[in-house]
Amino acid sequence: MTSLGDTKAPEGPRVRSAVARRAAGRSLEAPFYTDREFFGLDIAAIFTRHWIFAAVDAEVPEPGDYTTVDIGPYPVIVLRDEEENLRAFHNVCRHRGARLLDAGRGSAGNLVCGYHKWTYGTDGALRYAPSQPASFDPSCFGLKSVHVRSVGGLVFVCLADRPPADFDDVAARIEPYLLPHDLRHAKVAARSDIVEDGNWKLVMENNRECYHCDGHPELLRTFFPTYGYTEENLPPQLRPAHERYLRADAETRETYERLGLPYALIEELDNRATGFRIQRDALDLAGESFTADGKAACRPLLGGLPTPRLGHLALHMQPNSWFHVVADHAITFSVLPLAPDKTVLRTTWLVHPEATEGVDYDLDTLTKIWTATNEQDAHLVARAQRGISSPAYEPGPYAPTEYQVEAFCNWYITRLREALDDD
């Protein structure tokens, strides 16, 4: 494996003092979102040390299939080898460092560098290097491997020598929720990359609260706007939606129990290295999918599930991903940092492997809700980035409904402190 576990975090006194004085319950100070030194700290302390959601198994279903992802400055290849095992490598040729694969995804029997034609097998071994001397040993120049794990069809990579040890426990707890949907054998219906004009943490924070959900009229057709609220802090205008939620929740719980589907909330967002939250929950209207009327957008259903009225399975993983899995399709979201003020949001829609576009589903109907929501969120994130960049900005207090934003920031600051203490 690569030797990135000892990647050092920036040690400037400005960085250390900002981390040390972070006030609980308030947003982070401006440099965390705007400064390149702090961005370097994020890469070193977060993205090179933790499990990062990178792809789905459905993107590499057959031997030779590959997809690529950039984790900060680290380009990575995820592929299926000749033995049908999942593998990941740094997307860097061992000759003179050229990027090995330019395409975002594809299929190849061998991985051929477009510069000098060094050729690697799907196991990462160097198979051909032209014009080398007799003393050249190809076994010394295989691709640098990266830790990779599939959990219920979701693919995570870790650049560190020693990944967080709690991932096995997390995987064992979330996989029973995912397996009934059989995402491992699903099909990619669509994938979208948008560049948001904001820091990656603003993208994650924005996703962790519904305080702003009145800005998502399409999503709120089915997603209850009461997410994050309690009986004690529920605004009067949300009471009718809450009453509908209680009725839908009671019905879906009966269905989950009858079908033996796990649904209970597990929320460990900031008390462990691999923070996560998972829950199966009700949807509004028909309660089947993220569509204008709440009805399923695709037939057949994932995993051969017996009914479409299963609400949605929501999973959140620190530091860079969230997922919504309904009976008829799944949507994955991956947040990938580009610069202090630039972030890629990658969204992938999955359907049953035998579903046919134009027959079993209409692609626009399938993707419409979350495409609109992503665009709206991108506007809000850019608005936040512009305001935070002002000298007048100072950290403001979180509302009770924003408790998951606080949990994300607490997890993040804890990880930074650990990385700085290691140096």
Automatic annotation (TrEMBL):
<dbReference type="Pfam" id="PF00355">
    <property type="entry name" value="Rieske"/>
</dbReference>
<feature type="domain" description="Rieske">
    <location>
        <begin position="51"/>
        <end position="157"/>
    </location>
</feature>
<dbReference type="GO" id="GO:0051213">
    <property type="term" value="F:dioxygenase activity"/>
</dbReference>
<keyword id="KW-0411">Iron-sulfur</keyword>
<keyword id="KW-0560">Oxidoreductase</keyword>
<keyword id="KW-0479">Metal-binding</keyword>
<keyword id="KW-0001">2Fe-2S</keyword>
<dbReference type="InterPro" id="IPR001663">
    <property type="entry name" value="Rng_hydr_dOase-A"/>
</dbReference>
<dbReference type="InterPro" id="IPR015879">
    <property type="entry name" value="Ring_hydroxy_dOase_asu_C_dom"/>
</dbReference>
<keyword id="KW-0223">Dioxygenase</keyword>
<dbReference type="InterPro" id="IPR036922">
    <property type="entry name" value="Rieske_2Fe-2S_sf"/>
</dbReference>
<keyword id="KW-0408">Iron</keyword>
<protein>
    <submittedName>
        <fullName>Aromatic ring-hydroxylating dioxygenase subunit alpha</fullName>
    </submittedName>
</protein>
<dbReference type="Pfam" id="PF00848">
    <property type="entry name" value="Ring_hydroxyl_A"/>
</dbReference>
<dbReference type="InterPro" id="IPR017941">
    <property type="entry name" value="Rieske_2Fe-2S"/>
</dbReference>
